[in-house]
Amino acid sequence: MSISPLIDEMLGGLQPGRLVEFCGLSGTGKTALTIQAIANLLVKDPVAEVIIFDNHGFFPSSRLAQMLQGRLPEDQIMGALERVKICYELELGDFIRSFEYFMAGLDGMLPVKLVVLDNISYYFRHFRSEEVKERVRLIKYVGMMLRRFSRMHQVPVIVNNHLTATYLLHDNPESGTRFTPFLGDTWTGLIDYRVTLSLVERWSNRRRASLTKTTTVPKGAVTGEFAIEVLYFLILALNPI
Question: 130 pLDDT exceeds 90?
Answer without folding.
Answer: no
